[in-house]
Amino acid sequence: MARGRSEDVYTRPLRRLFVTIACVLLLLLVLLWRIDNPRAEGIRAAIVDRVVPNMEWALVPVTWAGRLIEDFEGYARVYEQNRELRRELQQMKSWREAAIQLEQENARLLDLNKVRLSPELTYVTGVVLTDSGSPFRRSVLLNIGAEDGIRDGWAAMDGLGLVGRISGVGARTSRVLLLTDGNSRIPVTIEPARKRAILAGDTTSAPALDFVENPEDVRAGDRIVTSGDGGVFPPDLTVGQVVRGADGRLRVRLAADTSRLEFLRVLRTREAPGIDTSGTILVPAPAPVQGPPTPANGG
User: Fold this and answer.
1) Does the residue 165 lie in any domain?
2) Is 214 helix (H, G, I), strand (E, B) or coil?
3) Residue 6 located in a structural domain
4) Bridge-partner residues for 209, per DSSP?
5) Angle at 244 between CA 240 and CA 245, to 5 degrees
6) Looking at the structure, do residues 229 and 133 belong to the same domain, yes or no?
7) DSSP secondary structure letters along 118-176
8) Alpha-carbon separation of residue 45 from 37, 39, 52, 257 (angstroms)
């Protein structure tokens, strides 16, 4: 215990002396580096020439650590730039998707403008809101209705051909019964043979042709148009082409793509004139009265 105390008595003063000498030397070194004097500049140059070459081995870790910090900062900048590029790429993907959708809508609108109709026909263009496709029903909902003058039974077309007819009208919406619906029946003409038939929907993408005169005269690829019979549709509206189904029945490959409907053109059809009065109707002459004469007749 006494030996330890004696060592502390000598060690502490020496330690304080060394610290004081080091502080004084550092202070003198700082002052030497701050003095603007040719003689002090010569002393500084001499110290640097003597000390720095011999301290290169000590500066290697410092240089390596500095480069490591610079590399780490560079990696951090690259990582941040990579995150920014990924963010911009995601935005570009969303913009690309929006551009593709706009391009498709533009193409469908251009297709509508290419449809050739009779000059006597006018139309109203609507946007498809919903598609109620199901195993038993094929119809779509439009954003136009009675306020736009839409009426039941009017034909609806896309940019390629006939789609269906109006079946149900609301104030601002209307429902289009597609040609593929099981309740759809329209009269058509098969060209060039000019054969009459009924296009019957059966919930498949290719409706069947029923009541065809001389089916042997009909060939695959023949053009199908509306006949205009009964005043249901205007005549000569494009419907599709004849194909032979797997069941052997004559079917129609529709010109319209009913699975991708966005815009429809509803054709205004003139109503058949109704009979309001009986003035022009020929009334049959009354039948002669048979029987005994009455007192009024002088009997």
Assistant:
1) yes
2) coil
3) yes
4) 199
5) 100
6) yes
7) -TT-EEEEEEEEEE---SS--EEEES--GGGT--TT-EEE-SSSEEEEEEEE-SS-EEE
8) 12, 10, 10, 89
* pLDDT tens per residue, range 234-293: 888 889 999 988 888 899 999 888 888 888 889 887 665 555 555 454 555 565 655 555
Please give the tally of structural domains in the chain. Answer: 2
- What are the CA-CA distances from residue 236 to residues 10, 59, 233 (Å)? 121, 93, 9
Q: What is the pLDDT of residues 108-154, one digit of tens each?
A: 665 555 555 555 677 888 888 877 656 656 889 999 999 988 999 89
User: What is the domain extent for residue 40?
Assistant: 2-51
Max Cα-Cα span within the chain: 177
- 13, 28, 51 — which closes off a domain? 51
Same domain, 33 and 164: no
Residue 61 included in any domain = no
Mark whether 30 and 153 lie in a shared domain. Answer: no
DSSP state of 274: P
Joined together, the tokens standing for residue 242 give 């004849």
| Burial (0-12, 13-18, 19+ Cβ within 10 Å), 232 | middle
